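Hey, can you fold this one?
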Amino acid sequence: MTQKVAKILSAGTFGLDCFLVEVEVDLGAGLPSFTIVGLPDKAIDESKERIRAAIKNSGVFFPQHRLTINLAPADVKKEGPSFDLPMAVGTLLSGDQFDKSVEFDEAIFVGELSLDGKLRGVNGALPITMFAVEKGYERIYLPEANAEEASLVKGIEIIPVKSLLDLIKHLRGEIMIKPHKAVKIERVKSEASTERDFAYVAGQEQSKRALEIAAAGNHNILLSGPPGSGKTLLARSLPTILPDMDEDEILEVMKIYSVAGFLSHEDGVMMDRPFRSPHHTTSSVAIVGGGAWPRPGEISLSHRGILFLDEFPEFPRSVLEALRQPLEDGIITVSRAAGSITFPAEFMLVAAQNPCPCGFLSDPDKHCICTPTQIIRYQKKISGPILDRIDIHIEVPRIKFEKLSEDKVAEESSKIKERVQKARDIQLKRFKGKKIKSNSELSARNIKEFCKLDDEATKIIAGAVDMLKLSARVYHRILKLSRTIADLENSENIKASHVAEALQYRPKEKTY
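Sure. Predicted structure:
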């Protein structure tokens, strides 16, 4: 048998980025052994047994020689079972079990092997496929379970592999595995979207108006009110009025979910915007991302969607303070010993809280039993800088019996969504050529360009800044909110009524 070094190309993920991995396989003289080098983790080290069993159970000869596999570059840590397939193919290639005419240097191989030789889906297939296109590779061999997500990427041949035996026959020319057809993104009305329609939320017209504005401009919102007033129901109904994601946004979101391992192979394309609702006992690492090998947190999983924090003051202060930078910048940088990774975090924060520990401070019909000290301590759990970053503060009152019992059905979510979509389309047209999707993303420089006020509006906001002693951040957020209200009315300039409504959504001064 001719001894040689075989080389198969694969790719690994680090955060949302990918890097090329050259799988070098050497069959040398000596007693049979199997060694993997190149900074592999435990999952890769265990792949020796999976590869050996998969090759044997596929009816192919496993070489009885000194087998050494190197994952280059050797100074970058590799993790996960996605290198099983390239290592198995490299092992067979080094043993002259494939025709030399096969062009292995034009393809990327990824996949996890089971003991019987079948392929299991792996995390990160979508970003790896995008990376392969960027680097100019012609095709990618991956598990059949990952073919659907990978075929969203244009410009590369997707070869879905069911088992190692099928791939061996394909590479030998005995059978032909047909490339997976490109997925066409088609909008299907979700059943879940009809379950939480705004039409079935009794009353709360002012709160619905505030949520419509929040959805139109992707603004952060805080719902405050007594227990049972409908804060959680309103928040969970919000996704039904959010504008549809475009293809770029779908790819952005699916890329994050693919790396995190939350992409369902059965559901196909993610059409609905993400809605994440972590419990208030969640740690700051789970919220912002991290770990020994950094993974996206809840704020990144909420990218282009909603992060809903119910019982807002009950979250640890460290968790809430960790939201400061991503709320301002739309990204989060996680630094660990393994390296620094930047994850996208352009989400809409929707928070809900009671006004005091007992919950009835703002209720005109039920007496609050909390002392002033308890109320102040409770409300101080949320710092001023965090409240500054929330554009809309709305009181959600208790619903009266007359509203609950009336037969009249409120406005449907589909009607509200049409207005929201029109406002968002206006913004996309206005920001064409810029990396901005909504008014909430406007920088101070962009605000001067796009937030033009008439004379009356200028007077109102000038008086408000002077009287309420507003910070520069709050001033800019009021302008962005006014811009969204103007877009909902299809107004080119911001008028006095738009600024006046935006000012109503600032938190009120409280006395105890």
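The longest helix spans residues 413-430. Let me know if you want another pass with a different chain boundary.
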